[in-house]
Amino acid sequence: MNQYNNKNDYEIIDSADMYYQPKYPLAEAPCSELQQISYEKVMNTSVGREYQAVQQVNVGESVSAALGILATILKAVNPTLGAAAGVISKIFGFLWKQFGTDPQAQWKQFMEAVEYLVNQKITDAVRSKAVSELAGVQNALELYQEAADDWNINPNDTSAKERVRRQFSSTNTTIEFAMPSFRVSGFEVPLLTVFAQAANLHLLLLRDAVKFGNEWGMPAAEVEDYYTRLQKRTAEYTDYCTNTYDKGLKQAYDLAPNPTDYNKYPYLNPYSKDPIYGKYYTAPVDWNLFNDFRRDMILMVLDIVAVWPTYNPKIYNNPYGVQIQLSREVYSTVYGRGWTNNSSVDAIEYTLVRPPHLVTELKKLAFDERNLFEAETVPIAFSKVTNTLQYVGSSTTWEQSFSVPPIASIKTVHNVSATDIGNLSLSLGAVPFGFSFYNKNDNPITTVGYSGGWWNGIPKDEGSNQNSHHLSYVAALETQTTAGWFPTYPVPLLGEWGFGWLHNSLTSTNTIVTDRTTQIPAVKAYWNRGAFSVVKGPGSTGGDLVQLSPSGEVSIMVKPSRPGIGSYRVRIRYAATANGRLNVKKYVDRVHASVTYDYKQTTTGNLTYSSFQYLDVYNFNLAESQFEVWLTNESGGPIYIDKIEFIPVNPIPEPPESGPGYGNYQIIYALSSGAVGITSSSTNTKMAITQNNHGNNQKWLFEYDSSKNAYQIRNSERKDLVFDYNTFGILYALPNEHKETQYWTIENVGDGNVYLKNNQGLYVTANSLPGSYELILSPLYSHLKSQRFTLQKSN
């Protein structure tokens, strides 16, 4: 990483603090120098810019495709998980597009994206061989999907069994022979995304043999052979991907920055040529070269690697699948410039990138805007940015700030609610002068300073309209700008900005669901003491690890989605450098259970895939609305804890994501602030909409019954009474007899309101009476707001 030599910081007055706001991120920046050069050079510059734009699009689209594949796998449930080739069929279209003339276009784009990130071209011979092998893999997988579909429809048909066995064997052989073409010596890094995505397909294929082989008529010994191969290939592919990723990081770190390449960095034109401030753009460009590879290869490679352990159907045999959470934090492009005290890649890394830490959720941002000096050449100056953060499960928040010396009074403080920021854009000049924030659907939240035109979020999943990540952290470095002559020249402001992002699979609570196996990363703890630390993960775990040496203790706050329902097996995924003893406690208002387990040494050195093993602990009955899991290393180790897993003994389907969750709700009428409640405490009480007094008679529990695919709506004051209706269609709260008339479905209107529908397809409707509204059933009239209600979570 080459740095410009330092020069006198006070040679001339700054001419670089002009600013502009391009409409699009790749729009051509002002370039007055072009007026003095030839038409031929202008054309060369345009061609260069077009090339850079295409390459940047290749990277963005490749990341989006990889995120789409990941999202599909994370969301996979029955019947996809219960069908041969089910997951393969879901992701096949991301890799081999149904439109366009080149079926291998996505794979070529993967290669071109990494070539761009590390500035290394794949030779034509290596590229052609890889593309040829991918065409063979495509054909083989298509034949396998056809055979699998035949067997899925006719599972007892002898010919269908024989066909799927034969085609599985052929497809497996094809991929086995193809894989070496995706890790050619000397080109391992630019081929890494191709290798990882091909390996993902291979592991899913082997998973099918282990999961369905017996039903296909395979001998037990053959199925066991494929299980051994699945384990072997998972370890081999995982370690190869993490090691090659590390090798690529070194390549990216050694790339030489050129901040005057305006084809690649149009937003730096003309600032990076300024005789005083120009040299301070080199370090952020240099850091971005390194971070672009780190971020994009996490998204394209390491994220998919992190889900591979769940492909083992003997360990992860829950038919409803696994709820996986990625806890790693990635950082988008840094914009702006630093100053003499921070103008190095290491300084940027130290300030902008957080060291391994427990997961935090960003609750609020505050931007301090200071008053400008009369001769100051910037239009706006930020002197401080404050993150308000919260550990998962904690009831308290804390702040982390970045600031410059207070040389001027504060003009205003911009406060931004930050719990749902899915994207942002910057207003750029010599330094960023404003930030526009958007939610997960890209709807505007607010703008601080000038509205921005340079997008700086993480790409969406391909095929999704929602952002894939949410903002988790904002950091900034000091720079200086002109404000007249000495002693007010120069003056400090925050001029170099970085942003951290968390994947949306990482939730803000540790909620245990009743159907899927719930994985909770250990770094989602909120409390610790003793010999505790968070250490960098090996790249294959989807995030960092909790390290406990003797006496080290950590606590994770968890919440059942539906307290009192079911029992759970619990196990811990860990690695250890020596034998030891781990104590596991369940704590509510006191310790309810405490058992100590022996754990085994799993590694003597680096943490590889095989370093991680599972420790089964006692079953948990989740009767409480929330409780803590305490993990204490009593002796030995240290132990590195990756995840704690809750596996329902008898899985019960969760309610639809769009429906109400566990807890009390008020049913608020859309045309008033009135609430639905019972009108008396008798066992045959009419329901009505009355003034909302927030009483328990106006609160309801929505209890989902998967066998009915519907809810019972139980009153919170009289828990024996549920929504029902008489022969005239008038709603009453009646004793629960689990009759068909006592089950209801929830339909989202789309404006924040819902419809309540009975099993006959009739809708709850408010009928005006003197002083109140009674509730009746009627057909749907979509224009009537008298059929619309809001469900408000209540205590």
From TrEMBL:
<dbReference type="InterPro" id="IPR036716">
    <property type="entry name" value="Pest_crys_N_sf"/>
</dbReference>
<dbReference type="InterPro" id="IPR035992">
    <property type="entry name" value="Ricin_B-like_lectins"/>
</dbReference>
<keyword id="KW-0749">Sporulation</keyword>
<dbReference type="GO" id="GO:0090729">
    <property type="term" value="F:toxin activity"/>
</dbReference>
<comment type="similarity">
    <text>Belongs to the delta endotoxin family.</text>
</comment>
<dbReference type="InterPro" id="IPR005639">
    <property type="entry name" value="Pest_crys_dom_I"/>
</dbReference>
<dbReference type="InterPro" id="IPR008979">
    <property type="entry name" value="Galactose-bd-like_sf"/>
</dbReference>
<dbReference type="Pfam" id="PF05588">
    <property type="entry name" value="Botulinum_HA-17"/>
</dbReference>
<dbReference type="GO" id="GO:0005102">
    <property type="term" value="F:signaling receptor binding"/>
</dbReference>
<dbReference type="InterPro" id="IPR005638">
    <property type="entry name" value="Pest_crys_dom-III"/>
</dbReference>
<dbReference type="Pfam" id="PF03944">
    <property type="entry name" value="Endotoxin_C"/>
</dbReference>
<dbReference type="InterPro" id="IPR001178">
    <property type="entry name" value="Pest_cryst_dom_II"/>
</dbReference>
<keyword id="KW-0800">Toxin</keyword>
<dbReference type="InterPro" id="IPR000772">
    <property type="entry name" value="Ricin_B_lectin"/>
</dbReference>
<keyword id="KW-0843">Virulence</keyword>
<dbReference type="GO" id="GO:0030435">
    <property type="term" value="P:sporulation resulting in formation of a cellular spore"/>
</dbReference>
<dbReference type="InterPro" id="IPR036399">
    <property type="entry name" value="Pest_cryst_cen_dom_sf"/>
</dbReference>
<dbReference type="GO" id="GO:0001907">
    <property type="term" value="P:symbiont-mediated killing of host cell"/>
</dbReference>
<feature type="domain" description="Ricin B lectin">
    <location>
        <begin position="663"/>
        <end position="792"/>
    </location>
</feature>
<dbReference type="Pfam" id="PF00555">
    <property type="entry name" value="Endotoxin_M"/>
</dbReference>
<protein>
    <recommendedName>
        <fullName>Crystaline entomocidal protoxin</fullName>
    </recommendedName>
</protein>
<dbReference type="Pfam" id="PF03945">
    <property type="entry name" value="Endotoxin_N"/>
</dbReference>
<dbReference type="InterPro" id="IPR038979">
    <property type="entry name" value="Pest_crys"/>
</dbReference>
